[in-house]
Amino acid sequence: MGTRIFAKLVVLAAVLIAIATATLDFAVQRSWEASLHHPAAVGAPGAAPDQGDVGSLRRALITGSAVALLLATLLAAVAARSIARRLQRIIQAVERLASGELATRITDASPDEIGQLATAIDRTAARLQEMFRGAEHSRNQFETLLNSIEDGVLAVSSEGRVLWVSRAMGRLLPHVRMRESLPEMIRDPEVLHAVQNVRITGAASHARAGSIAPGRVFQCTAAPLPGGDVVVVLHDLTDAERVERTRRDFIANVSHELRTPLTSIEGFTETLLESGAATDSESREFLEVIRRNTLRMSRLTEDLLTLARVESGEWQLEKGSVPAGSLLEEAATGLQYVAGEHSLQVRETVEAQVLADRDAIHQVFSNLVENAAKYSAGDTPIFLGATANAEEVEFYVKDQGPGIAAAHVPRLFERFYRVDKARSREAGGTGLGLAIVKHIIMNHQGRVRVETAVGHGSTFFFTLPRSDGA
Ligand code: ADP
Fold it and tell me: Which residues of 304-340 are buried (b: 16+ CB within 10 A; e: fewer)?
């Protein structure tokens, strides 16, 4: 590069000197010719200059030009060398910056344009370095955060290659490698299906994965990342499910064991009451208290057993296509004894078939009607009804009771949650009725909800999927 700048400077100087020489030569020639026509014009006191003088003047001019050209060449060589060296440094520095060495600086403090260019590049490099440090810091923080999560996290590219694996995921699946294809490393169809779902729908997808690691069950959540990538989070459910199963089994066993002694206490108490063995009023009163409490305990153990069976899936639902209207009719006629003084009326019905287990849905209606009757004073009617859309039928049980304050609504379907414990107990409630309803409906792939306001009654809704695909 040095020689190129040098050559350009020399050519430039030579052209300038040649133009200057030619101009001077032309001026000397013109001035000599003018002096021939007007000898006084040259201002010389004697005769006009002869051709010899002009010739020597021109020679001197050419010699001067040659010397000037030589000097210019030397100067150009020095200038070219210095400029080329400075530009060379800038080029090398920019190349190093481009290859990622962001600490590179040129440090050329001269005030000329090359110096200014170098300073501007240094400033840009410093800014880039700062931004890069910031980005790296955030990335490290983010990585530390993801690595500190106990759940396994991995990112998959839009082509299905693994982009990043968290430490927990590495421990869980040691064979998973970066840049390898996910389907070749994780063979669990549920996980692959969830990832595929995210790609198709662009929304998060959940799955239960049972074949990732032997003997372990995971909750898999796949969610979209920018650019078509997908993040997969695996949450180990094995221990939680084991604890839950133990708890359920324990409750079921205890309830089962309590059943027989409770039936016996109930039977003997009734026999004593009926036989008239207890003659004084105090003894009769005690026996009544024993009977009432035994009944409560029996109900509680029955409800606990039912809930454990529904939750564990032990209660095998026998689902079939059932007319929605017939479920309403069966509830209205079969549950009048549960409604007591309140009349049970079907207010609206639909021509649709639903996928349901008749007995289980009867149990749902029974719990809801029992509550409606239990918590409503007087003999206000209880309405049953159903509405339908293309996918499902929504059933409801509506009462004109006291309603429920909004603060309680989110927890209403939890087991043992009671708005007014004393009132529920007094009414013979166990706090499990709505939890049973929720689990039965969940096992039907339906949803439960309630619309209620204090002083305006409550309407409990549940949905069942349509089997006639309207
Ligand atoms: P419980 O056996 O106590 O009735 P549930 O699970 O059936 O238990 O209901 C939970 C709580 O929800 C009840 O204790 C009661 O406070 C409230 N609740 C349920 N149904 C109604 C209703 N129809 N009207 C007012 N409150 C209700």
Answer: bbbbbbbbeeebebebeebbbbebbeebbeebeebbe
Q: Which helix (H) or strand (E) is 465 found in, with range?
A: strand 458-465
Which residues form the pocket of ligand 1, taking CB atoms under 6 Å from any ligand atom?
371-372, 375, 399, 401-402, 404, 412, 417-420, 424, 429-435, 458
pLDDT in tens, 222-273: 999 988 999 999 999 999 999 988 988 898 899 999 999 999 999 999 999 8
Query: How do strand 392-398 and strand 218-224 relate by DSSP bridges?
Result: unpaired
* Pairing label, strands 344-348, 382-388: parallel
Closest-CA residue, ligand 1 atom 20, reads 371
- What SS3 state is found at 308? helix
Q: Which helix (H) or strand (E) holds 155?
A: strand 152-156
Residue nearest to atom 3 of ligand 1 (CA): 431
Contact 371, 437 (CB under 8 A): no
Determine the Cα–Cα distance for residues 217 and 371; give it in Å rounded to an integer. Answer: 38
